[in-house]
Amino acid sequence: MGVIMACNHEQLTQLIEQKQLRATEARCRILELLYDTREHYTPEEMLEALREHGKPFSIATLYQNLSKLAEVGLISRFVGPDGQTRYDANTAPHHHLVCKICGRMIDVDVEGPLEEVRPRALFADEEPVLPEWKVDDIHIELQGVCPDCQARISREAGGA
Amino acid sequence: MGVIMACNHEQLTQLIEQKQLRATEARCRILELLYDTREHYTPEEMLEALREHGKPFSIATLYQNLSKLAEVGLISRFVGPDGQTRYDANTAPHHHLVCKICGRMIDVDVEGPLEEVRPRALFADEEPVLPEWKVDDIHIELQGVCPDCQARISREAGGA
DNA sequence: ATCATTGCAAACTGTTTGCATCAAG
DNA sequence: CTTGATGCAAACAGTTTGCAATGAT
User: Fold this and answer.
1) Which residues contact B98 (CB under 8 A, 6 or more apart)?
2) Is B23's CB less than 7 Å from nucleic acid strand C?
3) What pLDDT is stored for residue B110 in this prediction?
4) Tens-level pLDDT at each residue, chain A (160 residues)
5) What is the pTM of this model?
6) How far apart are CA B123 and CA B108, in angstroms?
7) Which terminus of chain A faces fewer neighbouring Cβ atoms within 10 Å, N or C?
8) DSSP secondary-structure letter at A104?
């Protein structure tokens, strides 16, 4: 579970039915898009991508299915630093690398001594509060500029 | 700048006027709330807090001022993992400790070898992509359970 | 045949905007 | 007095929901 890989139609059907859901065309198309591209789509972006493929797609059906699929754990939902809700097919714990320019986001693992990273109160008078928090999870968001935006920027700088 | 401390009215006025803005009552009340409490309020929560203090407060004025104050750098805006927009008075770079139960969020610094934390592609076929990202920022979100929720949970467990 | 799913339209929530009034400088 | 700020109401964007029609088992 949580391992992403491009799937054929039968595999998708199986995944969905394992969750006691009907393997409808809408659900297959959504899962296929997320599994194949590994992108972190906003609902709006997904709608565009799904419609480009030819067939129409109802926005209500999209939202209904994104909720249901996230609920049963076939996809995961989160909110990016830009405030946009996004979905991806990677339900295993992971970290994110985010482009500050376009908001694009890819999954990464991190290497390094994470266990040694510890919180510390920022203000003297909060010192006693911190130890009482039970901290059991860490999510790292690396920020930078993606290859595409770097290219676009240097192209525009060169042209201007 | 970016250092939080409780301020008196004159100091607030000065801070605001340094940014070429008029030090109106609405702005002072907003800044005072954020600076005094250090909480990470949603607009809705702020509205409630501001109105409890007695006087009414227009929701349009709140939003208008939150935008403006964030724009000039007197406060900072961000979106929590629960998707709620929040504001705080700490404009210096910092990390967050978030309660998984109630969503409460406090600022923390972290200790540990952060420089050694490096991204690594999750999928073999993405390996060549990663090095082309320019990574220059890291934001760490520690998740756990705040003291209040811990207390409430053990109280409920004991009572049930 | 049965019951989940679809998809339109209407409802809802959080946020922004137009604009007349008001108040800070 | 001048210009920016306020605050109502209307507009808006993203998301959810009611419900009749449709489709999967």
Assistant:
1) B80, B81, B104, B105, B141, B142, B143, B144
2) yes
3) 82
4) 445 555 688 899 999 999 999 999 999 999 999 999 999 999 999 999 999 877 899 999 999 999 999 999 999 999 988 889 999 998 888 899 999 888 889 899 887 667 777 778 776 566 656 778 899 888 999 999 999 999 999 998 886 5
5) 0.87
6) 32
7) C
8) -
Question: How many angstroms away from the CA of B159 is the closest CA of chain A?
Answer: 22
Q: Which residues pair with A141 in a beta bridge?
A: A96, B139
- Closest residue to D9 (CA, C1′): B60
pLDDT of residue B81: 87
Q: Which two tokens stand for residue B111?
A: 């200790």
How big, in percent rounded to 5, are the helix, strand and coil portions of chain B?
A: 40, 25, 35
Q: Mark the ranges of chain B whose per-residue pLDDT is less than 50.
A: 1-2
CA distance, residue B123 to nearest chain A CA (Å): 9
Joined tokens for residue B131: 């090095």
Amino acid identity for residue A94 in this structure? H
Chain C nucleotides near the protein (CB, 7 A): 4-10, 14-18, 23-25
Sequence length of chain B is 160
Asked if strand C contacts A60 at the CB level, meaning under 7 A, the answer is yes
- Residue B1, helix vs strand vs coil: coil
Nucleotides of D under 7 A from a protein CB: 4-10, 14-18, 23-25
Strands B85-88 and B76-79, bridge-based pairing: antiparallel
What are the chain B neighbours of A90 within 8 Å (beta carbons)? 122
Distance CA B146, CA B159 (A): 20
For the record, the structure tokens of A85 come out as 């809700």
Residue B29 CB partners (closer than 8 Å, separation 6+): B50, B53, B55, B57
Instruction: Give the separation between CA B69 and CA A73, rounded to whole angstroms.
Output: 39
Tokens 């659900």 — which residue? A27
Is any atom of nucleic acid chain C found less than 7 Å from the CB of residue B92?
no
